[in-house]
Design brief:
Blueprint (H helix, E strand, L loop, with lengths): L18 H15 L1 H6 L4 E4 L4 E5 L2 H12 L9 E2 L10
Amino acid sequence: MPSSYAVERKAAGIYALTAEERQQEEDVRWALHDPNVLANYVGEFVVPVDRRIVAHGQDIESVLTEAARLTGRNPERLPICGIDDPLLDLPH
């Protein structure tokens, strides 16, 4: 390939998480391990904020829209995770 087509890539950087990002990580970890969340929201997407579920449902866009409305936050900056149904992982 001729050198005129070469693309220069920047090295990937490592950066520390912001306080908001750390809180989001903790909220997601909590949601994926809390027995009440796992029991009540099986098969749904949830948006955890400050250790509470602010929105949930099966349509990810609707869940994010509702969470953004309730929290006043940008939907692109909200954490979202799926609560798996453990019975779906069983062999038939």
